Each structure stands twice: as structure tokens, then as C-alpha cells.
Amino acid sequence: MKQVRIVLVEARDRVLPTFPAELGQDAKKRLERRQIEVRLGTRLERVEGDEVLLSGGERIVTKTLVWAAGVRPAALVEALGLPATKSGRVAVDQALRVQGHDRVFAIGDIAAVPYGDGEMPMLSAPAIQEGRFVADAILKLERGLDPGRFRYRDKGIMATIGRNAAVAQLGKLRFKGFVGWIMWLVVHLYFIIGFRNRISVLLEWAWDYFRYDRPIRLIERAKQKEGAP
Ligand SMILES: Cc1cc2nc3c(=O)[nH]c(=O)nc-3n(C[C@H](O)[C@H](O)[C@H](O)COP(=O)(O)OP(=O)(O)OC[C@H]3O[C@@H](n4cnc5c(N)ncnc54)[C@H](O)[C@@H]3O)c2cc1C
Fold first, then answer.
1. Is the Cβ atom of 10 under 6 angstroms away from ligand 1?
2. pLDDT-derived band at 229, boundaries 50, 70, 90
3. More reliable by pLDDT, 165 or 224
4. pTM for the model
């Protein structure tokens, strides 16, 4: 028996817009196979009581709405009155110094670090690299040296879609489906600190995987038989 209905509403024309189009399409296909209804090019207009109104006029009756349309920088940025960009992040120069302040740095989610046509995405990898850069820049400034300019080393992005399914982009390489999922597991295990922690997480994952032991797993395969648990 189908117990939950999940509708994914996305304003843009594909899911996972930071990934190459091909991986976004693959992710959508796999979500739909899991019976998730994907509405692309659709905006959430209003929430009225137990009803959600979408831009196409569709109304969805629900008591559960998960808002995942991006994060904003901490309110502190506004309170400090520092120069900010349209996104509300602090405007910084190439050395991550706040514009107009030679000895004040901003990094991570709050910093509008120029990247490509826009700003650095709010992800942990840029935040970590920016932190390392600033530590080094401060030491250089103390020695009267030029702090240099920050260059982001893109090591790739990955996202899980569900059991046996993920998408990953590592440089020019792209992975999807089961291979992408294995990549996701390996990379995340690698970044866990300490051998014992890695083994314990690996065992826990293996337990979950082989026993389907996820008490709150709502998304099941589309072909599941009626009445199956
Ligand atoms: C739900 C969620 C899922 C995410 N998933 C991923 C992911 O899978 N991969 C990925 O790369 N990134 C992910 N991110 C983004 C990632 O967490 C951030 O990009 C990263 O943590 C930015 O680091 P930061 O140091 O700039 O900010 P934070 O890690 O947010 O640290 C800022 C700290 O400042 C503190 N703070 C705020 N205001 C004040 C104040 N006035 N005084 C003192 N302290 C204050 C906050 O409490 C917080 O601890 C996710 C973010 C969210 C919200």
C-alpha cells in the first residue's frame, strides 16, 4: 500500500542544477523510479494552512513541507554593516579581505568570493580551503609580504539519491547509479577521521544496507508489491 506521496518542486528546469545536465537528468529519472513526483520549472507560491499552492495553479494538500531552497548567510553580516553583495554575503577581494578593510577577512558561507560568473557555492570544501588560505595570508601579512590571491581547487561534487544511487563529478569524470553511489561511500569514508571511526561507520552502513534497517525510510522502489512492508 502506498503510504506517502512525495512531490519535489524545483523552480529551475532540472534537479541538482550545480551538477552537469546529464547527471541532473539521471537523478530525476531515479527519483521518479522511486515514485517521487518531480515538478520542474515550478515555484512554490504560498502555503495556506494544510495546502501548498504552486505556480502552475496546482494545490497540494499536506501537513509536511520541507523547505530546502538554499541557505542564507548568518544575520550577523547585516548587523555588522559590512559591504555586501545582492546575495547578502560579505564582499571580499581576491585575498578574501573585506572590501575597504585591509585586516578583516571573511570566509565560508558569509563571504561572496567571486567564482566563475557568480559567487563561490555555500559548501564545506570552499570554506575549508578559504580558512587555510587566510591562515597563510595572515602569516604573510605579519611578515610584510603580499597575501596572494585565493584560488579554489575544485575536487568535485557528489550527491546521493537513495539506495544504490548517487551522482558524482570528479574533474572531468562523471559517475552515476551504483558506481556513483560506491564513489560517494568511498569518499565519505576516506574523510572520516581515525581508522576506528571509519571501521565503525563502515560496519554500521553494511548493517543498514543488508538488513534494510532504516526505521524511517519512506522512499521505496516503485515495483514494490502491494501490502509489502
Ligand atoms: C542542511 C545542510 C546540509 C548541508 N550539506 C552539505 C553537504 O552535503 N556538503 C557540503 O559541502 N556542504 C553542505 N552544507 C553547507 C556547509 O555546511 C556550509 O557551506 C559550511 O558549513 C560553511 O562553513 P562556515 O564555516 O562558513 O559556516 P558554518 O559551518 O555555518 O559555521 C558558522 C558558525 O558560526 C556560528 N555563528 C553564527 N552567528 C554567530 C554569532 N553571532 N556569534 C558567534 N558565532 C556565530 C554558527 O553557530 C556556526 O557554528 C550544508 C548546509 C546545510 C544547512
1. no
2. very low
3. 165
4. 0.77
For a pocket test of ligand 1, which of 107, 109, 134, 167 has the largest count of ligand atoms closer than 8 A to its C-beta? 109
Alpha carbon distance 6, 222 (integer Å): 13
Residues 6+ apart with CB under 8 A from 209: 163
Nine-digit cell string for 21:
545536465
pLDDT in tens, 129-162: 999 999 999 999 999 999 999 999 988 899 999 8
User: Distance from first CA to last CA of the chain, Å, rounded?
Assistant: 9
Asked if residues 37 and 44 have their Cβ atoms less than 8 Å apart, the reply is no
Instruction: State the distance from the centre of ligand 1 to the C-alpha of 128, rounded, in angstroms.
Output: 11
CA distance 84 to 92: 9
The burial class, CB within 10 Å (0-12 / 13-18 / 19+), for 188 is middle
How is residue 225 annotated by DSSP? P
Q: Are 89 and 145 in contact (CB under 8 A)?
A: no
Q: Would you give the distance in Å from CA 44 to the centre of its chain?
A: 20
Q: How many angstroms separate the Cα of 2 from the Cα of each of 49, 90, 214, 218?
A: 24, 47, 18, 10
Predicted confidence (pLDDT) per residue in 159-208, tens digit: 999 889 999 998 889 999 999 999 999 988 888 888 899 999 999 888 88
Domains defined along the chain, listed by start: 6-69+156-211 (3.50.50.60), 76-142 (3.50.50.60)
